[in-house]
Amino acid sequence: MATFTYTPDFGANKKLMPRIKSINFGDGYEQRYNDGLNTNPQTWMLSFSNRTDIEAEAIDDFLAASKEWSKSLDSYNRNTIQATFIQVFEA
């Protein structure tokens, strides 16, 4: 697998959505517990601004398999790419 070596802009956003199950027992009592292993994957929304055409194309090529990004041409040889990186756990 290829390694992503590009540094994103400051101001990255992190989103956490833990997987939790719960059981209601009545009288307002509820028990919550983790849904399996690795229950708190991270999702990062990153921007790569002011990138040259060559660097933007390299980032674009890497992200082609993930299907979750956008690219805009800001001016001549200046591009912005926004992507969402989702942490996955493999055995």
Report the C-alpha radius of gyration, rounded: 19 Å
Query: How many helices?
Result: 1
Q: What order do the strands of the largest sheet run in, or round the barrel if closed? A: 1-4-6-5
Mean pLDDT: 90
The biggest beta sheet is recorded as: 4 strands, antiparallel
Instruction: Name the poorly predicted regions.
Output: none
Write the layout of secondary structure elements.
Layout: E1 13-16, E2 20-26, E3 29-34, E4 42-51, H1 53-63, E5 69-75, E6 78-86
Antiparallel strand pairs: 1-4, 2-3, 4-6, 5-6
Describe this structure in words.
It is a single chain. The protein has one helix spanning 53-63; strands spanning 13-16, 20-26, 29-34, 42-51, 69-75, 78-86. It has one domain. It has 1 helix and 6 strands; from the N terminus they run ββββαββ. It is mainly beta and 91 residues long. The mean pLDDT is 90. The strands form 2 sheets. The chain has a 4-stranded antiparallel sheet. A two-stranded antiparallel sheet has the order 2-3. The chain starts with 12 loop residues before the first strand and ends in a 5-residue tail after the last strand. β2 and β3 (29-34) form a beta hairpin.
